[in-house]
Specification:
By secondary structure, this protein is of the alpha+beta class. It contains 11 helices and 10 strands. The strands form 2 sheets. A 5-stranded antiparallel β-sheet has the order 2-1-5-4-3, covered by helices on one side. Strands 7-8-6-9-10 form a 5-stranded mixed β-sheet, with helices on both faces. A hairpin with a 2-residue loop joins strand 7 and strand 8. Helix 8 crosses helix 9. The chain is elongated and about 80 Å long.
Length: 360
C-alpha cells in the first residue's frame, strides 16, 4: 500500500504531466499558426490560399467537413460565397442540408465560436435523420473576425465526438483571422493589379496591357501555328465632336463605343482603349477574313446608334474607321503586325472613313 508521501508524489507528477501536456498543446497551436502565416503569406490567388489553408488545418485537426462562408467586402473586393471541402464520403454542401436557414443566416453576426453537438435535440438541426446516415456527430462554427467585425464563418464538422476546449477555440479564431487577412491581402493585390491594367473611363484594358498581350499572343500563334487578328478602331472626327458638344459628351461617346465593341466580340478576345478615341482588339485564333467580319459588325453597330448632336458631324453621323491585320508569315513581330493594322486604319480614313480596311 502506498503511503501518503507516495500519493503526494504521484499527485504532483500527474499535475506536472498535465501542465506539460497543456504547454505542449499551446506550443503545437503556436507552431501551427506560425506555419500557417508563413504558408499563406506569399500566395496571391484566393483559391490556392483556401486550398492550402484546408490542407494545413486538416493535418492539425483531421476534420471531415470544412465550409468557409465569406460575406464579401467591397473595400477589398472579396466576393461573398462558400468554399467547401467535404471529406465525409457524401457529396454536396452538408450544412445547407443539416442546419436551418434561419440559423445559417444568423451566423454572420457571431463573434465567438459556437460548438454544435449534432446528436442532441436541437432546433437548429432541420434534418436529424440524415445525420445518422452521415455519421456526423460534432462541429464548431468559428467567425472570421478582424478588428471589431466578423467577415465570414468557418464551419468544421467531424464524424467523432470532439470536445473543443477553450484553448482550441481561441486558436481556431486566430486561424480564421489569419485566413481572412490572407484573402484580403490577395484580393487587394489583385484589385491593384487590375487597376494598373484598366482604363478608368471605359473599363477596357489599357495601352500597356494590350501591347504585352499582343507580344505574348503573337509568339504563341507562331509556336502553335494559329491565326491571330488585330483590329485598330478610331472614332471619326472625334475632335470635332468634342469641340462642338464638350468633353463630357465626348466621354459618353467613348463609353458607348467601348461597350459596343466589347459586346460584339467573344469572351476570349481582348479589347483595350489605346488612347484618345482609339481602341485595339486582339482576336486569338481568328484569321484576317473573319477579323474583317468582326470589324464590319462593330462598324455597323456604332453607325446604327444615335448620339447627341451627331448630325453636326462632318459626315452627319458618328461613325468609326477600322484597320485589320493578321499574323501572316511575312510579318516579323508583334510591332510589325500593329503597324500594319495602323496603316490599314490610315487608309480607311483616306478613303472616306466609316469603313473597314484589311492590311496588305
Amino acid at each position: 500500500m502506498a503511503n501518503s508521501d507516495d500519493k503526494e508524489v504521484n499527485k504532483d507528477s500527474r499535475q506536472g504531466r498535465s501542465r506539460f501536456s497543456a504547454l505542449e498543446n499551446e506550443l503545437a497551436w503556436t507552431r501551427f499558426a506560425f506555419e500557417l502565416e508563413e504558408k499563406l503569406g506569399t500566395l496571391q490567388d484566393n483559391e490556392v490560399i483556401l486550398q492550402t489553408f484546408s490542407d494545413h488545418l486538416k493535418n492539425r485537426l483531421g476534420y471531415d467537413y470544412l465550409e468557409i462562408s465569406l460575406q464579401g467586402n467591397a473595400s477589398c473586393d472579396i466576393q461573398p460565397g462558400d468554399w467547401v471541402r467535404n471529406d465525409t464520403g457524401y457529396g454536396g454542401k452538408l450544412l445547407s442540408i443539416i442546419l436551418s436557414p434561419e440559423f445559417l443566416h444568423g451566423l454572420r453576426w457571431r463573434r465567438r465560436p459556437m460548438v454544435v453537438d449534432l446528436q442532441d435535440p436541437n432546433p437548429l438541426v432541420k434534418n436529424p435523420e440524415l445525420l445518422r446516415v452521415m455519421e456526423v456527430n460534432s462541429g464548431i462554427l468559428v467567425p472570421m473576425c478582424l478588428g471589431n467585425c466578423s467577415h465570414g464563418v468557418m464551419k468544421l464538422f467531424f464524424h467523432d465526438h470532439i470536445e473543443f476546449e477553450a484553448e482550441a477555440q481561441k486558436w481556431l479564431l486566430t486561424s480564421a483571422a489569419i485566413l481572412y487577412r490572407s484573402l484580403r491581402r490577395s484580393s487587394q493585390y489583385l484589385k491593384a493589379q487590375k487597376m494598373a491594367t484598366i482604363d478608368g473611363l471605359t473599363g477596357l484594358y489599357n495601352r500597356r496591357y494590350i501591347m504585352e498581350q499582343l507580344a505574348k499572343e503573337f509568339v504563341r500563334s507562331r509556336r502553335y501555328r494559329n491565326w491571330l487578328s488585330l483590329i485598330i478602331v478610331d472614332i471619326d472626327y472625334f475632335k470635332h465632336y468634342n469641340d462642338t458638344n464638350g468633353h463630357l459628351a465626348g466621354d459618353r461617346v467613348l463609353k458607348r463605343v467601348a461597350l459596343a465593341i466589347r459586346d460584339s466580340v467573344r469572351e476570349i478576345d481582348l479589347v483595350a482603349r489605346w488612347g484618345g478615341e482609339e481602341f485595339v482588339l486582339l482576336l486569338p485564333e481568328i484569321n484576317g477574313e473573319n477579323g474583317m467580319i468582326v470589324a464590319e459588325k462593330i462598324r455597323r453597330e456604332v453607325e446604327s446608334q444615335r448620339f447627341k448632336n451627331e448630325r453636326k458631324q462632318p459626315n452627319h453621323n458618328l461613325t468609326i474607321s477600322l484597320g485589320v491585320a493578321q499574323n501572316s508569315t511575312d510579318i516579323k513581330n508583334h510591332i510589325d503586325m500593329f503597324n500594319r493594322a495602323d496603316a490599314a486604319l490610315y487608309r480607311a480614313k483616306l478613303e472616306g472613313r466609316n469603313r473597314c480596311v484589311f492590311a496588305k
